Amino acid sequence: MAKTTKTRESFDKELFKRSVLYNIKTLYRRTLEEATPQQIYQAASLAIKDQIIDQWMDTQKAMEEQDPKIVYYMSMEFLMGRAFGNNLINLRAYEGVGEVMDELGVDLNLIEDQEPDPALGNGGLGRLAACFLDSLASLNYVAYGCGIRYKYGMFRQEIHDGYQVEKPDDWLVNGNPFELRRQEYAKEIKFGGYVRMYQDENGRTMFKQEDYQAVRAVPYDLPVLGYGNGVVDTLRIWDAEPINNFQLDSFDKGDYQKAVEQENLAKQICEVLYPNDNHIAGKELRLKQQYFFISASVQTAVQKYLKNHDDIKKFYEKNVFQLNDTHPTVAVAELMRVLMDDYYLEWDEAWDVTTKTCCYTNHTIMAEALEKWPQDLFQRLLPRIYQIVEEINRRFNIEIVNRYSNDHNASVDEKLRKMAILYDNQVRMAHLAIVGSHSVNGVAKLHTEILEKRELKDFYEMMPEKFNNKTNGITQRRFLMHANPLLADWCTKKVGDGWITDLTVLKGLKKTAATAKAGKEFMAIKKKNKERLAKYILQHNGIQIDPDSIYDCQVKRLHEYKRQLLNILHVIYLYDKIKSDPKFDMPKETFIFGAKAAAGYRIAKLTIKLINSVADVVNNDPDVNGRIKVVFIEDYRVSNAELIFAAADVSEQISTASREASGTGNMKMMLNGAVTIGTMDGANVEIVGEVGKDNAFIFGMSSDEVIEHERKNDYDPMSIYNSDAVIKKTVDHLIDGTFSKDKELFRPLWNSLLNTKDTSKADTYFILKDFHSYAEAQSKVRKAYEDKAGWAKMAMLQTACCGKFSSDRTIEEYVKDIWHLDKIKI
Ligand code: 26W
Questions:
Q1: Residue 681 CB–ligand 1 contact under 6 Å
Q2: Pairing with 400, which of 338, 410, 758, 805 sits 20 to 30 Å away (CA)?
Q3: Residue having the nearest C-alpha atom to atom 9 of ligand 1
């Protein structure tokens, strides 16, 4: 750790050391020698927090003086990952703290490992939110992340006999040293009851929710540090508490039942993150979670604004709400409610403010992820909000009628059917989000195109001005500086440290990439990172892998559309090749998987079992002779992801074209010098655009081809199976006992490819169709890897060309096109 993490001059090592020792003493009545690593971690965190608080207060002061516009990033998920190391990096104190720990005889890595991963998110959408906060603070913007303080985050995954077992993620057992409870900002949130209408003394019609159940929303603030700029933004996550503690006399008043109910409601709301990714469960509790954190956040934003502004009609000039997918969409109606019921705006005035404040990002086209709520449930839980949604819908329907009744090319009925917010006894959240926002964006060029041309075509035609693309990005501070300090230092040595705040600086490496010497250095670093991962895998999985083998990595949520099954079928195919031709020559290759499956997703869980079963057979077959190895890394999460990205040679991005909205793991691997094998899907398209098609291994159908097959409904995997002996043999290994004594065990996977009962449900993700093209791309990868110098050059080019994929670039685009924020000066 040399140049890159060089500590700022103002960091006072002696003061920090004293502070750690003092904290150990006052918190635990212990000396350093007596303290556990967890206690040292807590003590060191508090010492860091002390420094953060000063900057946090300075940021608040600057905000009050400069009155910049603020973005509220509203999201049910923030997959922050560990804060300790990241805070040290952004404080520019990582190296200094490392030295202090050395002097104390403490291993900094061991201390970092004491922190549980805050995993308040499922996958891509939640991690994107975390990268965005890092970039916002680093670029001097004032931002609030608004979310939920789940007691249990994403479950911990254990593998028992090859199967996923979910264990609760009790991330708060030892407390969270970085958080601040702000009970003075608590808000009341109301559910249920009915709406009473009456005239007030000024003759205004008023709407009042009565006979409701209430909970108290209490915010906890987490600091979000900008890199080296003294800015500290806030992630505000809400916890639920009972409104009034159990009062004995409520029993006498006949309120006993209600008191119990309210208490239970408060206990439930923030209990656990829904572990579904790209699939709705449609549970009432989830809608409660949504309204809970949105109502609290909207009330807060309005009150904060009115502290130093008097015209609520100009709220949008100083505030913008970004809705992270449809999950926070009740914000549209909640803001309307607050503006009308609490601040007496007329409908049109409130609507003007609301639509100018709200913006919506779509993150998926997967039909099963589209949020729709049963109308009666929505109405029962949120009676006033429902009234407002009804009125938004009524007015929007009139707009549709006005717009299309004289249009001979359009049928008004069809437009209403396709676009109404309330339809078929459902509340369609995406439609509410689009109608209530002034900006609708997709997360990669291809994805936005698909939204405009297909998924949201009618909306695009009616309001094209709202639509725009914002290709996702990732933060280089976490995914290069923290994840891969060796490579970070190497980059700094070659092109200076400007890349830390401007990733395009890395394009300076292109010249470097041409030299053999640089290639050797680059691959030597890769090797070190591969050894680090091998050590982790040996410790956690008990499997020995060879750091000289190709590390082929697919780490992401387990989902059929992401096609982990295609990957493992290809391994099975290679295994067959080796078995039938003992001399089959290939470079050693390790296939690394990491993935959590939603707890109720049967096929996904069975895929995990299959990967582990294939690993058992392949890894222990003497005929294989170490040529291929398969590893499933347990409990994939941000902290071990960092180790994997740094060590990857090959980045598997093999979703069925059109299905992966963007992907961000693809960018993290690229940044660390992994070469992509992938389909032309999501941001892969743009990755190829940057690195050039000769420096990526692209295969499979295009998104147009996929969509065309679906339209014509003419894909027949059975005919492929019957006419292609290789595919038949490979697929039949699922049911011939090769990987399980119970031949029926993997039958559901076989059926998912070749559903004989309902052919329209066979191989919906085109695995067999893309199989040969994938196998061929894999064989090209092996060939390319054998040319050591050529590979080194290609790997370096990945790092050199990934400037576009910094979340700093993404955030600047949001600011310029949508948010129009002001930078603050500290
Ligand atoms: C209601 C259940 C549910 C939960 C999560 C539905 C949908 C989601 C997310 C929108 C799924 C998600 O994380 N999507 C991913 O978003 C990333 C960030 O934009 C993209 O890079 C991924 O391609 C996309 O799958």
A1: no
A2: 338
A3: 278
In 3D, which of 138, 114, 139, 150 has the Cα closest to residue 40? 114
Assigned token pair, 157: 């995954």
The secondary structure of 130-197, three-state, reads: HHHHHHHHHCCCCEEEEEECCCECCCEEEEECCEEEEECCCCCCCCCCCCEECHHHCEEEEECCEEEE
pTM above 0.95, yes or no: yes
Domain assignment present for residue 231? The answer is yes
Q: How many domains does the chain have?
A: 3
Minimum CA distance residue for ligand 1 atom 7? 278
**Does the active-site annotation cover 445?**
no
Separation of 195 CA from ligand 1 center, angstroms? 35
Structure tokens at 603: 């096929």
Q: Which of 357, 392, 427 is the last residue of a domain?
A: 392
pLDDT 10s digits, 190-230: 999 999 999 999 999 999 999 999 999 999 999 999 999 99
Active-site residue 679, yes or no?
Answer: no
CA–CA gap between residue 824 and residue 785 (Å, rounded)? 48
Query: 501-523, pLDDT tens digit by residue?
Result: 999 999 999 998 779 999 999 99
Share of the chain above pLDDT 90, in %: 94
- Considering the domain architecture, whether residues 673 and 700 belong to the same structural domain is answered as yes
User: Residue 247 is part of which domain span?
Assistant: 67-81+122-392
Q: How far apart are CA 565 and CA 559, in angstroms?
A: 9
Distance (angstroms) between ligand 1 centre and the Cα of 202 equals 48
